[in-house]
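Long-time lurker. I teach an intro course on protein structure, and each term I like to show students one example going from raw sequence to a predicted 3D structure in token notation. This year I'd like something fresh instead of my usual example. Would anyone be willing to generate the tokens for the chain below so I can use it in lecture? Attribution to the forum is fine with me.
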Amino acid sequence: MKTGDSYKASALSAACTVLVLIASLSALSLHAEDADGFVPLFNGKNLDGWQGATEVYAVEDGKLVCRKHGPGEKESTDKNLFTTKEYADFVLRFEFKLEPGANNGVAVRSPLKGRISEVGMEIQILDDYAEQYKNLQPHQYHGSIYLLAPAKRGHLKPVGEWNSEEIRFQGRRAKVTLNGVVIVDADLDNLEYKKYLDKNTGQMRAKGYIGFLGHGSRVEFRNIRIKEL
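-- Reply from a regular --
Happy to contribute to a lecture. Here you go:
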């Protein structure tokens, strides 16, 4: 017959076992492959696996949200959230939703410090239909490799609707697909805007971090997945 102390010890042991199982299942869910070989970069619960400006990004209803800066709060170049792992060749898939005039970006093969569009590469995320962006050049449109490779304009869904995007980097080839339409297909050894190459060393990098680059706008992300090639 078990004593009271024995029951307590058994209950404590069972509770510890349950906690270990929960932690193991959580880790497995973050790294579980789907049928196409993609694994989640964001678990929908917290910022495990991410580093940088974690105070600027929040988890809301399973979404990763870059918050809008408050009144009187200056925009910062440090509102960047990076993976804790580096990637070389990959396919990144995610969905995003913009507010009017929203501006963000995806860092690719990037270091953690410096102006990312120069020391790494930035895939533009932008409401380029907004009035303040009407005079942009193609190398500044949504989906462009900022200042390096132009994008086709006109394939964003209306503000407030979810867009799907795929970013593929393989060797010296880069491709961006927005809502099923290829808007960038670039050879990094033959970039069109050569006048910016003197300022950009990032396009020569073969490996680096992936990140979201906040510019003070609210942008929502979900279903963030990656497959290494």
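Some talking points for your students: Residues 23 and 29 are 10 Å apart (CA to CA). Helices lie at 4-31, 116-119.
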